Amino acid sequence: MPPAIHLHGIGKDFGSVRALDGLGLSVERGEIVGLLGPNGSGKTTTLRILAGYLRPDRGEVRVCGRVGYLPEKAPLYDALPVTGQLDFVAGARGLNRAARRREVDRALADYGLEAVRNRRIGTLSKGFRQRVGLAQATLGDPEVLLLDEATNGLDPLQMVEVRALIRRAGQGRAVLFSSHLMQEVAALCARVYILHAGRAVAERRLEGEAPAIPAMADVHAGGIAAAALIHLLSALPGVAVVSGADTADGAVCRCRLDPGDDPRGRIAAAVVERASLLALMPVAPTLEDVFLDAIRPAGPEGIAA
Amino acid sequence: MTRFAALLRKELTEVFGTPIAYAVLIVFWMVSGYFFSVNLFFVNAAHMVTAFHNMSILLILVAPLITMRVFAEEAKTGTLELLLTLPLSEVQIVLAKFLASLLVMLLMLAGTATAVVPLVLYGQPDLGPILGGYLGIALLGTAFLAIGVLVSSLSRNQIVAALVTWAIIVLLWFVDYAAGLRLDYTLTRLVTHLSFSVHYVDLIRGVLNSTTVVYFASIVVAALALSVLALQGRRA
Q1: Nearest to B236 among A55, A76, A96 (CB)
Q2: What is the reported pLDDT for B44?
């Protein structure tokens, strides 16, 4: 089966500003994929193209099935009651009266909106507005869900609630979730594309088993100073020392390991010869590491992403 | 049809869910009622030509207020993005907004029809011209609303939309003044034909000829077509 969302070589200019520059990505059904990037990196433009709001200047867009879209600011009519808003969107998606009633009731129940069903949207809190926006995006059971900064501007409690609702909404659907906050993407997504200057500069899998050979490790040695430990480890092939510090019982160094040439044995042997090896612990890279790596220009000191 | 009905329902709920429609209705009824009563007692005439005159001036002031929010507000609050990403055509969107505005104006005019009651009770008015006059003023108002919808589709600010709509209506109202500049024949014909005031004099007397109907119909069609193009332009 082809992916539910497929973008290839997408380009989009606004006047002289190049918003997207050869962006490519794909999302399968049943996965929540993150779109991570700083403001102005092209996240919103990408989602708008997928939603059909903007036309790309170059490239190929394939979307299989209907699309539910929640823009950054939930597009709601303050004068309408919650049911009126949902009924309108369901009707605009072509649902007849009976189907509308069913869908609206389902959405109200799924997104915890029954208590506010007759309230005017203008009187709702930001958290409830976001829920209405999410409920509205799922009306008519779309196969694809596009969420632009959906947890932005919520308080911590609302954030947790909305995240749970997004997970539920994502079941069986292809979801593309944009954010400039790494922890939001990490909390929701199995996979992430990192956007920078209108291109997907990296793709990372965030869940699943840790790799057999860690890309990073902390070396903790007793009876040696940090400077000596750094000197010792730097000399080993396949090891790049990132940082080092003295501890009460010796020193600890964070090292980047070359996964193609497992250097753990060499590290252990070298440390044991000079001092005592207290620990050799794999370190999972944080999304911050991944992100900064991906957008860092690859100079002589740069480490390939 | 389901989609268009949903759109129209939403427009009407919005129009009558905000105070603008009520304010416009009440102001229009009060002011036109005042003019009508004063005129009735002083002039003692069982016709409505003067009332229609006053109503058309009032309409110039009030019509831009009915249409100013239709697109400007959607653009400002971001709901236009929802409208344009739902499976709705630009033609449907423009027509729904136009029809909802038209309904407010027809209510406005219908309210003034209570004035006909004392005329019938205490005089022998000729109802033909009165009905014709209402039709005429409705036609005039329809053209104002179409222009207002177009201007609102080009703005994100309601006040700006109202002002520009008002300016266009007033300019079209007085454009025949330019005929006094002794322009060449074609230009004189053109500015005369473009003028609201030239056509509306026939209208409020209840005279409907084909030129007038074609004139107003072309303004409505042109303004709505341009609104559709303006919406399509937003997707670029």
Answers
A1: A55
A2: 67
Q: Which chain B residues touch A44 with a CB distance below 8 Å?
A: none
For β-strands A276-282 and A174-179, DSSP reports them as unpaired
From the candidate CATH numbers 1.20.120, 2.60.120, 3.30.70, 1.10.287, the one assigned to the domain spanning A216-283: 3.30.70
pTM: 0.83
Identify which of B3, B17, B235 has the shortest CB distance to residue A79: B17
Ranges of each domain in chain A: 5-205, 216-283
Instruction: Print burial letters for A8-36: b (CB count within 10 Å at least 16), e (below 16).
Output: eebbbeeeeeebbbebebbbebebbbbbb
- List, for residues B8-51, the tens digit of each pLDDT value: 999 999 999 888 889 999 999 999 888 888 877 777 666 777 88
Report residue A209's pLDDT band, with 50, 70 and 90 as the boundaries: low
Quote the DSSP letter at residue A116. Answer: G
Look up the CATH number of domain A5-205.
3.40.50.300
The ipTM, to two decimals, is: 0.88
DSSP string, A136-203: HHTTT--SEEEEESTTTT--HHHHHHHHHHHHHHTTTSEEEEEES-HHHHHHH-SEEEEEETTEEEEE
